[in-house]
Specification:
It is a single chain. It is built from 26 helices and no strands. With about 800 residues, it is mainly alpha-helical.
């Protein structure tokens, strides 16, 4: 509030106050009570002290300031006087206006009392005349009302007499609602006078209404009638107090039989479609799906849509609201049958497009039915059904892929013909590789369609589908490893560092198949798993619906470890199976003859040819499946001259030291002493996935077995010489198979040394005789090879 208004208020308060000490002082004090107490030098306060005020001014201001303060105070006093004068003038004018108004009101009220008395006299006159008219017309009014009541009663009586005729007309026009309304309106009169005055009318009306009830029942049971008309018929029957409970039971039984008939025929249609599925073309699969999912009437002449069934359900809910539970059971059973047909269909080979089409058709029906019967919870029911179907589809797809891989492996032949361009083992390997990698990628494309589809039902299952796909691959490769073991006959694998070979059912297992499985395991570990992992990371990332506590669904490191171990296991199994087969040949060779009475050697024994044939067969199988080593050792020349001359020189050098048995024994002892100071040679190294490594390992095992068989026999001089001849002949052919000449030379020397130990008279063949017998064998082998090639 500005200073001027504040002063004006204080002036007015002081002007209208009669007692400054009591009223004014109290007023100002009360007004100033909320604020701090005014000081004595405040000029506007009641406690103003002029002496204090002047002393303060003199202390604060100089002469010029005092003069200026004087001028301001004089102007302020003048302004206050002017304001006070204006306030007095304004209040005076208001008092004058109020006085004039009171005078005018007094002049206007003077004639109003006479007018009010005149109005009261007129109202009293009107009331007396109105009472006179009512008194004169009272008897006539009562007579008119009596006649009106009589007229209404006659109309009702006439309506009762005309009711049978009216009901007949309504029945003829099928206006059953009007007939029921007329009969219900007349029912109180029939109840009161139906046994006396209106007996005939009541009987005729009841006969007509019985016909109406009969017609309404027929309309309810008629399938050709609209749903609205049938619902109206039930409502009319309820108004007539007809027992509709029995009618409801019959109608529900009829609906149940109808839906059951649809399900049975639907099931038969789906079964026939499934029977013809195997012979159908891919373009016909969509038509078969429509046939399976379509609903037909029992006659099969009319296609029943779910929209029509929903109308029936809607009508039943309107007519019989308390039948909701039974309707829910019927509808759930209907959709259970339909989803069951898809589950049966999934067990056969089908594409994800067919699955999506079939689920989409049912989902549209579920959406339509859910609008009518939301209490059935069909969307949640369909979600569970679709979850089961999709999971079964993914599992079945992996089962079919596993079967395809097994079929690709079992098509291989035990041994291809030599020189044939087409190799069965190689074809089996390439075919199985293609099935594993391409089949897995095709499955990922199929499963990707499930994720890319915009169906609301599948969108809720996206994380579960991702987990199921990853779990499917984890389980597929684990089962594939088990299938590989089953194809191998679950044979036992010997320790490569041991000379003992465990028993293997060679006759029941194809050795070439074992080698194919070894190389296929390497392919899965090094190529298939990384490729599949890339596709899964690109298209099937996310998931997590199974919970983090269960760990990842697909663990490629574990699968790689499984197949790395499986590859090594199968490779060793192949080596042991081949070694065992050759060992049987070697065992027969050394256990059959009597080495104590052995005759002088005339030629290289035939077991050498059999041994080389077996090794050649191994080479054929290995060359089909395994690659060559990265480092190839330089081979010795095949010329017999250099080999024979070196062998002859060595023999001539030893000839002087083998003049008698004693010197030979001494030389044998010296050789054993020399072995103690020789550097130990590592014979059995880790097997690599190369041709040379596998063949070398098999030959090493065979020579080790040969050494053990030699140690179990006792030889005369001729037997020892026969062993010497056979071993000398094997040196060059064996070196053609292996990449470690030193190890082969060492093992062959070990065989000769073992025979030398077990010989009663260990005198070897002379060099010329040894060279001649070997040359003869080589020439004979060449002739046989040329003749066989010409044939």
């Amino acid at each position: 509030m500005d200073e001027k208004a504040k002063r004006t208020r204080e002036l007015l308060a002081s002007f209208y106050s009669t007692d400054h000490s009591a009223g004014g002082g109290a007023g100002v004090g009360s007004a100033a009570s909320p604020r701090k107490m005014a000081s004595p030098d405040s000029i506007n306060s009641p406690s103003f002290d002029p002496d204090v005020y002047m002393s303060l001014l003199v202390q604060k201001l100089n002469l010029e300031g005092l003069l200026q303060k004087h001028v301001e105070m004089a102007a302020e006093i003048k302004n206050l006087d002017t304001d006070l004068q204006m306030l007095v003038y304004e209040n005076y004018n208001k008092f004058i206006n109020a006085t004039d108004t009171i005078k005018r009101m007094k002049n206007n009220i003077v004639g109003m009392e006479a007018n009010m008395e005149q109005l009261l006299a007129k109202i009293t006159s009107v009331q007396s005349k109105s009472d006179l008219v009512n008194t004169s017309l009272f008897e006539k009014r009562e007579h008119i009302e009596k006649l009106h009541r009589t007229r209404n009663l006659l109309r009702k009586v006439q309506f009762i007499y005309d009711l049978p005729t009216r009901l007949a007309k309504c029945i003829k026009a099928e206006a059953y609602a009007d007939a029921v309304r007329f009969f219900i309106g007349s029912k109180p009169i029939f109840e009161a006078y139906g046994d006396s005055s209106f007996q005939d009318c009541k009987r005729a009306s009841e006969e007509a209404i019985d016909l109406v009830i009969k017609n309404l029942e027929a309309k309810i049971y008629s399938d050709s009638e609209p749903i609205e008309a049938r619902a109206e018929a039930v409502v009319l029957l309820k108004q007539l107090n007809f027992p509709v409970d029995s009618l409801k039971t019959k109608l529900l039984e009829k609906l149940e039989d109808y839906l059951m008939t649809l399900q049975d025929e639907h099931k038969e249609t789906g079964a026939s479609a499934l029977d013809t599925l195997e012979t159908s073309e891919p373009s016909d699969i969509g038509k078969l799906s429509d046939t399976i999912l379509s609903l037909k009437t029992p006659t099969g002449t009319h296609m029943v849509s779910v929209g029509e069934i929903s109308k029936i359900i809607r009508a039943y809910l309107i007519i019989f609201p308390d039948s909701e539970r039974r309707l829910i059971e019927l509808i759930q059973e209907l959709f259970t049958k339909r989803y069951g047909i898809i589950e049966r269909r999934v067990k056969e080979r089908m594409t994800s497009a067919d699955i999506l089409k079939m689920i989409r058709v049912i989902w549209e029906d579920v959406t339509l039915m859910d609008e009518v019967l939301a209490e059935a919870a069909l969307p949640a029911f369909s979600l569970e059904a679709a979850r089961s179907i999709i999971r079964q589809f993914i599992s079945t797809s992996f089962s079919h892929l596993l079967l395809e891989v097994s079929e690709a492996l079992t098509k291989s032949q035990p041994m291809p013909k030599k020189g044939s361009e087409e190799s069965s083992l190689q074809n089996a390997l390439e075919g199985s590789k293609k099935v594993v990698i391409q089949g897995s990628l095709d499955l990922l494309l199929e499963f990707r369609q499930l994720l890319d589809d915009n169906l609301e039902l599948l969108a809720k299952l996206r994380d579960l589908i991702v987990d199921w796909v990853q779990e499917g691959f984890q389980g597929f490769f684990q089962k594939l490893d088990e299938r590989f073991l089953a194809l191998c006959g679950k044979g036992y694998i010997a320790n490569p560092d041991s000379s003992v070979i465990d028993a293997i059912q060679v006759d029941k297992v194809q050795t070439g198949l074992v080698l194919v499985l070894a190389q296929l395991s390497v392919f899965i570990e090094q190529i298939a798993i990384p490729r599949i992992m890339e596709e899964i990371a690109a298209s099937f990332s996310g998931g997590g619906a199974r919970g983090y506590e269960h760990g990842p669904a697909f663990v490629p490191g574990e699968i790689c470890r499984i197949f790395r171990s499986a590859g090594e296991r199968f490779l060793l199994l192949y080596i042991n199976m081949k070694t065992q087969k050759i060992s049987i040949l070697l065992k027969k060779r050394f256990t059959t003859p009597n080495w104590i009475k052995h005759k002088e050697p005339r030629e290289v024994h035939m077991f050498v040819d059999l041994l080389l044939q077996e090794l050649e067969a191994v080479g054929i199988e290995v060359r089909q499946i395994l690659p060559q080593g990265l480092v190839r050792r330089h081979r010795h020349s095949d010329s017999t001259g250099s080999t024979n001359s070196s062998r002859s020189n060595a023999t001539r050098e030893d000839k002087l030291t083998r003049t008698n048995t004693q010197r030979v024994r001494s030389q044998f002892l010296e050789s054993h002493l020399a072995k103690l100071f020789e550097q130990k040679m590592e014979i059995f190294t880790k097997v690599q996935y190369t041709q040379e490594s596998v063949i070398s390992t098999i030959i090493k095992f065979c020579l080790k077995s040969l050494q053990e068989f030699v140690r179990l026999q006792t030889f005369n001089r001729s037997g020892f010489q026969q062993i010497q001849l056979d071993i000398e002949f094997l040196k060059n052919p064996l070196k053609e198979f292996v990449d470690d000449d030193a190890a082969i030379d060492f093992l062959l020397k070990e065989v000769i040394g073992a025979a030398h130990e077990r010989c009663l008279d260990p005198i070897p063949l002379e060099a010329p005789i040894l060279d001649k017998l070997i040359s003869t064998k080589i020439s004979k082998s060449r002739e046989e090879s040329q003749s066989s090639s010409l044939a």
